[in-house]
Design brief:
With 145 residues, this protein is α/β, with parallel strands linked by helices. The protein has a single domain, classed as Rossmann fold, CATH 3.40.50.10480. It is built from two helices and ten strands; from the N terminus they run E-H-E-E-E-E-E-H-E-E-E-E. The model has no long low-confidence stretch (mean pLDDT 90). Helix content is 17%, strand content 45%. Strands 1, 2, 3, 4, 5, 6, 7, 8, 9 and 10 form a ten-stranded mixed β-sheet that branches.
Amino acid sequence: MIITTARKPSSKIRTFCRHLSRFTGWKYISRGKASISIFGDEPFLLVGEHKGNPGSFVFYSDGICVLSIRINVSRDEEIGCGAEPVLEGDNDLAHALGRATGLIMGGKGERVIHVNDRIEFIDKGASYIVVTVLSARGEGIVRPV
């Protein structure tokens, strides 16, 4: 999967995307003026902006939006590269995130993405990125707050 940004991302967004890329192992590409059509059929995550801060995750597959999550970032720390994370959570949002990303649900791993009212990116028991879910829409999920 690819991580990208809006056309003119703030420095906070670019930094956040780099951290997210290192945690997930997904490739980060700064789009610049290019259209999202450059990704073709490849799945990607577009990190949206709200007042200069990360404000949404929009997942695309085959050029179609499959999951949209409005977020508020409450913690974002530098992390190194590591193993692919596993998803943890038994709710509609966790299952939709699994379908959109192709990440393995459950299981054990050093890196975990825990999904409930927040999405927590955890490495060896320590939280590195925490986002509060404000709302979510996608296949089989409508979660307004």
